[in-house]
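Example for tutorial group B:
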């Protein structure tokens, strides 16, 4: 069975080199749906607590919210960083508080201090799904990701092989040593 959660992300981006209006900087409200698949953990009668899926995903994906997403070869990138630098906000500002955990993968690097994510590929809805799966695949048994942005939508299904041990009392993933970080249960 699956536990399903959704997240909203507001972001700005552009498709550098794309022959169409998306080559101009513009913004979106994106909707991300993450489906986690596993057996039902009998103790809690659920696959995985949806608020925990959300918490795990949001810790990293917060970086995309109210952020600018640009491809690493986009000439707008050094231009914008130059403006941020001159303004003294490139390395953070006291009003920039809703920051995600910085990350760097093959596909994307997050700079929470200046609310920027630099991607290797164009951040289409398909591109975003690849980035999200890569960030979360070891933390959640992801069976499907759907991302919608304006009239665009894409989804991808995955095989879930990594069985994650869950706490029979609260449902969250146990640590490698079999301990629940939330309620202290030991396997
Ligand atoms: Zn767009
Ligand atoms: Zn627990």
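The residue assignment follows.
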């Amino acid at each position: 069975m699956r536990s399903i959660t959704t997240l909203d992300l507001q972001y700005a981006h552009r498709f550098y080199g794309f022959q169409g209006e998306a080559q101009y900087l513009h913004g979106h409200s994106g909707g991300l749906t993450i489906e986690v698949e596993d057996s039902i953990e009998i103790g809690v009668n659920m696959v995985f607590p949806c608020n925990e899926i959300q918490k795990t995903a949001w810790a990293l994906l917060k970086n995309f919210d109210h952020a600018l997403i640009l491809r690493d070869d986009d000439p707008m990138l050094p231009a914008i960083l130059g403006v941020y630098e001159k303004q003294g906000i490139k390395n953070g500002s006291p009003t920039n508080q809703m920051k995600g955990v910085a990350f760097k993968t093959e596909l994307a690097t997050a700079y929470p201090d200046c609310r920027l994510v630099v991607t290797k590929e164009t951040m289409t809805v398909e591109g975003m799904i690849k980035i999200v799966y890569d960030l979360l695949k070891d933390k959640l048994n992801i069976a499907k990701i759907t991302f919608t942005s304006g009239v665009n939508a894409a989804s991808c299904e995955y095989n879930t092989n990594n069985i994650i041990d869950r706490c029979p009392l609260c449902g969250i993933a146990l640590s490698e040593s079999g301990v629940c970080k939330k309620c202290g249960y030991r396997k």
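Residues 13, 22, 26, 28 surround zinc ion (ligand 1) (CB under 6 Å). Compare this with the pattern of hydrophobic and polar residues in the output above.
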